[in-house]
Specification:
By secondary structure, the protein is of the alpha/beta class. The chain contains 14 helices and 21 strands. The strands form five sheets. Strands 1, 2, 3, 4, 5, 6 and 16 form a seven-stranded mixed sheet that branches. It has a five-stranded antiparallel sheet with strand order 17-18-21-20-19, with helices on both faces. The relative contact order is 0.11.
């Protein structure tokens, strides 16, 4: 019997953050991981996808050229691009390694865990009894029940980075962020790409912003078929067929399934721990604590409140606060940003325009600034895009950014919303010139401009003062 204060199941972003924080604060911690340290983000998700996108971006820079530079056909070395992916993972891996966490005093068990009771589980040939458990098992690719899928070779985000040669024609089922990021990366590295989406591509995002992304992808030669359900797949690698509603058949060499993810909870024997779950994750309260077993918490994808690495990290901080100090740690999601890392990038935090209109009606106003009004964007030739800020009572409730560097710029609005800051805080901030950050400053200024320059009373007061000033 191994007794501990905290037992963390899963060594992805959320689990590692909980384990590191708790151990460094003096708690005894057992960390269990049945597969790879670092979880999905390091090995199959954020890190490899952004590394491959970087390779595609470099190829596109040569192809497109720039001011005073004529574009030319890039010489793409797919094997070298693939090495960049593995080298990037290897550079980050030590931070998530078993050795590092054992150095922090964490007991690391490399095995799959399963509960044997409300306060016990088994892993690595041991029984672990803990005062608190944290389920941080992440998620796995969702594979829809399409006819023929079980007999057809297909890729997911967990296997596509293993390819040694570029696909001749990559068929992608799913037009969300993962599908479109992989579409652009592979198209830029030389593959033909067809994306098949059952609904609207990037359907969760602001339609106007999503349209700019899709326009760019189509201009680069990516075929995007929307509102079309895949009904049947067949063939083998090198000759894959996808038949859609209506009978049209798309033919390619490889198939990527990117229709979403589901929580990875099946191995845990949750019933033995009296932990209730749903299709989206563990049933938790606003402290991320199981409603049916108060010893158990869930973070990240397993909590069913969103599937982002940075969200899992945020959850981890809240759980450490609650589990170690018994302090209230009510989670919120209004300040959690999300980014689609295509080029142009699309970033969102808080409410979209349509969500804000539905919630606040006429009390909400939209502050809009176009990229082509930003001097840095003009100088670099990256003028396609815009910023929309949804404001209520002088505070932002949402921001939509599409264009160059949107993922970096959205952090400012996440901070504003997280800290319930007023537009005046940003209007008073001096931004370096010329930078893309001035886009946000202009949005804040747009809030105050009508109040200052279209105000009859202020004009009257200014004229009166000027008459009395020597």
């Amino acid at each position: 019997m191994l007794k501990t204060d905290l037992c963390v199941i899963g060594a992805g972003s959320g689990g590692l953050s909980v384990a590191a924080g708790a151990a460094q604060m003096g708690a005894s911690v057992v960390l269990i991981e049945g597969h790879r340290m670092g979880g999905d983000c390091l090995n199959y998700g954020c890190v490899p996808s952004k590394a491959l996108l970087a390779a595609g971006k470099a190829a596109q820079a040569v192809r497109a050229g720039g001011p005073g530079v004529e574009g030319s056909a890039p010489s793409v070395d797919f094997a070298a691009a693939r090495r960049h992916v593995t080298d990037t993972i290897a550079a980050i891996a030590p931070h998530d390694s078993q050795e590092r966490f054992e150095g922090l005093g964490v007991t690391v068990i490399r095995d799959w865990a399963r509960f044997t009771g409300p306060d016990t589980l088994q892993a690595g040939g041991q029984t672990i009894r803990a005062r608190r458990f944290v389920i941080a098992t992440g998620s796995r690719p969702l594979v829809p029940p399409i006819e023929g899928i079980d007999a057809t070779p297909y890729l997911t985000n967990e296997t596509i980075f293993d390819l040694r040669e570029p696909p001749g024609h990559l068929l992608i089922i799913g037009g969300g962020p993962i599908g479109l990021e992989m579409a652009q990366a592979h198209r830029r590295l030389g593959s033909s790409v067809t994306v098949i989406e059952g609904g609207t591509a990037l359907g969760r995002e602001d339609p106007e912003a999503a349209a700019l992304v899709l326009e760019r992808l189509r201009a680069e030669g990516i075929e995007i078929v929307e509102n079309t359900q895949a009904r049947r797949v067949g063939g083998r690698t090198g000759g894959i067929e996808v038949e859609v509603a209506g009978g049209t058949i798309f033919v390619g060499t490889h198939l990527l399934v990117a229709v979403g993810r589901s929580p990875a909870l099946d191995r845990l024997d949750l019933d033995r721990a009296h932990v209730r779950r749903s299709e989206t994750g563990i049933d938790t309260d606003d402290n991320l604590r199981s409603r049916t077993n108060r010893r158990v918490y869930a973070v990240g994808d397993a909590a069913g409140r969103g599937q982002f690495t940075h969200l899992a990290g945020y959850h981890a901080g809240q759980v450490v606060r609650s589990a170690l100090f018994s302090l209230p740690a009510r989670v919120r999601d209004d300040h959690i940003p999300r980014v689609t890392y295509t080029q142009p990038e699309l970033a969102q935090v808080g409410l979209t325009e349509s969500q804000a209109r539905e919630k606040f009606g006429g009390r909400m106003q939209v502050l809009r600034v176009a990229m082509d009004g930003n001097d840095r964007a003009l100088a670099e030739g990256t003028t396609r895009g815009f910023l929309k800020v949804m404001e209520v009572g002088g505070r932002p409730v949402g921001a939509t950014l599409v264009g160059a560097g949107a993922g970096e710029q959205i952090a400012l609005w996440s901070m504003m919303i997280a800290n319930k800051m007023k537009m005046g805080a940003l209007a008073a901030t001096v931004m370096p010139y010329p930078t893309m950050a001035e886009l946000s400053k202009r949005a804040a200024s747009a809030y105050f401009s009508p109040k200052l320059f279209d105000n009859h009373l202020i004009k009257t007061v200014v004229r009166a003062i000027q008459r009395w000033i020597p």
